[in-house]
Amino acid sequence: MLVGAMERLSPFVLGAAVVVAGVIAAAVVGWQPVGVDVADLLWRVAIAVALALAVTVADLRVVGAAAALVVVGVALASPFVLAVAAVAVLVSGARRSPPGARRLVDAVVIGLAVVAGIGALSLAVAVARGVGPSGDAVALTREGLAATEVGDQALAADRLDRAASSFDDVADAFGGWAAAPARFVPLVGPNVAAVADLATTGGDVARAGSAATTAVDLDDVTTAGRVDLAAVTSLQTPFRAFEEMLTAADARLAALESGWLVPPVADRLATFRGEIADVRPDAVVASDLADVLPGLLGADGERRYFLAFANPAESRGLGGFMGGYGELTANDGVLDLPSSGRINDLNEATPALSRRLTGPPDYLARYARFRPSVFLQNVTASPDLPTVAGVIQQLYPQAGGQTVDGVVYVDTKGLSALLRLTGPVMVAGAPAPLDADNVVALLERDQYVVLPDVDARADLQSAAAAAVFDALTNADLPAPRIIVESLAPAVAGGHLSVWFADPAGEAIVARAGADGRFPSLDGGDLLSIRSANTNPNKIDSYLHRRIAAVVEHDPATGEVRSSIEIRLRNDAPVEGLPEYAAGNLQGNAFASNQLLVSVYSPLGVRAATIDGEVVGVEVVPELGVGTGTVQVLVDAGRERVVRFDLVGNLAPGAPYRLIWSGQPRSNPDEVTIEVRSAGQRWVSTTDGLLARGDGPPASFPPIGVQNLFLEPSSR
User: Fold this and answer.
1) CB atoms within 10 A of CB 495
2) What pTM value is reported for the model?
């Protein structure tokens, strides 16, 4: 009886099916009633109708298939599957309806078929008109961006202008009157609209990029020793407009994303968004730099910057000891190097005991015993450039200098990167012109053999650094992208870093990863191994470190246990080196290396051993974490093994995250970090391999001086 009653209601069921189809069509053409979630309404109505028809229709195979498709569509959030389900529902309902209703449905279907045919024809016309310009637009845009990166402004502008024109052609093909019928075809409509909007957005981005590219001839911005600040200022408006256009374009493209897009359109949309995401950070930096650079280069009065020339042949926490210095001035865009010299010039400029250092407190607690106010070469003891810069700001005026507005830290590998921009430089006392390929070996090792006189060596190091910066202030530099690519490895390795007293300038170098800042904790774990030569000698260019860390993390309690093994190998020859390079003041064997080895971690140091024997550990807080330090002597040709055992607690229930911060050194460290957490095992090495459990290794960023984040239990 119940089934019979339901069969008599089949016309009403058919009406419900038509409602479902209408909702689908509304979603396709983008119609959304105010306050109604069409997708949610679609799921609910489709499911209700499918269940109703499962009772009322005798052909349960069709209805069962429709119901199954609805369930799958909901599970996959797939509009295509739901569209098929709606058609099945409509057909099933029509088959059980009176003849009049079936004729109405036939008329509707025929009408829809006619509309679909017209829409398909208009779509074919749009595709025929737009497919060629579409390919041209993409290719021209990429050519324009490539030309921008190498500084070819004329070519970049030509390609971007032509790309904008091609994008306009595509937008006209898919958004004009000829393509209008296709917009009313279910499934086709949103794709046509998406292509039109995508092309319009592409044209807007290309035009903004062209305007930014052609705003100023970059060859006129920098001339020998001078930066045209008026030209830089004129870049502010177009650069900011390009940045804002990229932001707006990403928002517009995000709004186009829909489950109704076919894979070719969805893929093109995702690719375009990805390319915008790649370009936008550079656009932000360029825009901010155009705003800030005039002030940094003396638009509002002279700026002074201290140049710290470091040599990792004698290691310190930041990298190397400061063997030379320079003072760079910028006044209305004019760059000059009025003074430079070896570090002893500053040590002897004023009475050493008259100089006072008042902080930071953790710096004094750790490094006051090394008397950085007396021996300025020791100011780089801290691994944090902003801290070191603050110390230099205090001590440099007391050593005969003036107040500085920033500090540039550069070591031998940093000079090598800069020489790739300037070309070779002549330096008095050097056996050959200094270039990017020979400067590291000469300053870290060879000078101590070929120049037996101490004063000659000290003069060479400071003179080499001064010559490089003097060449920089007088050179016609290449395109910004080439400069960035030339300096990027040195910046990433911590061999070249900058600190500005100006917060806006500091924000820019921080965004570029060039601020030399020791990483701060963000609720996770941190590990850094730093060593410092205490002989003193210049033997660290022969020191090799192999670091292996094993971390055990309990997510339930937050407990972390870490075992850190540091293998120190001294490859210095026992003969052939002068006393200045390989001797020491402690009476140790010739060419031996006596150094402090420190572990930085928020965990507590439970124990430390050297070659398996327990040793005492100096524990002092610094830079928001704890440090554990031991002293170890490594004779020439020997290897010593230092081990730290750490224990502590992080937030219970949170995924484990480790920040690794390496030390800029003569010889890069070999590092392996194994993390065991939540039943997972991850291993990361300097080769960039990450292994999980017993499975094959996966690609992962290599361990280096840059911060490395591991989050095994969050995967």
Assistant:
1) 27
2) 0.78
